[in-house]
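In response to the reviewer comment on reproducibility (Comment 2.3), we provide here a single inverse folding case reported in full, input and output, so that an independent group could reproduce the run without further information from us. The structure tokens appear first.
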């Protein structure tokens, strides 16, 4: 699954266009490297998102095309 779509489906970022813009601006890092929106997300990837002064770091647990709102947090685990 594309990175921008994963960020939207997992609800880490609200809209896919915003996720795409964040990737283009270099604010999304996957496994220590700046990632493009077209990056293919796999289980075990570490995603770090910097939006404003806030940084979110998560590990991908599951990649699903469609997820209910309540189940979205099961797609990732917060990493310190």
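Designed residues, in position order:
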């Amino acid at each position: 699954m594309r990175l921008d779509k994963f960020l939207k489906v997992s609800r880490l970022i609200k809209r896919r266009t915003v996720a795409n813009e964040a990737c283009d601006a270099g604010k999304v890092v996957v496994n220590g490297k700046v990632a493009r929106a077209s990056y293919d997300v796999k289980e075990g990837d570490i995603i770090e998102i910097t939006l404003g002064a806030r940084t979110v770091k998560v590990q991908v647990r599951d990649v699903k095309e469609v997820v209910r709102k309540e189940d979205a947090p099961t797609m990732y685990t917060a990493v310190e």
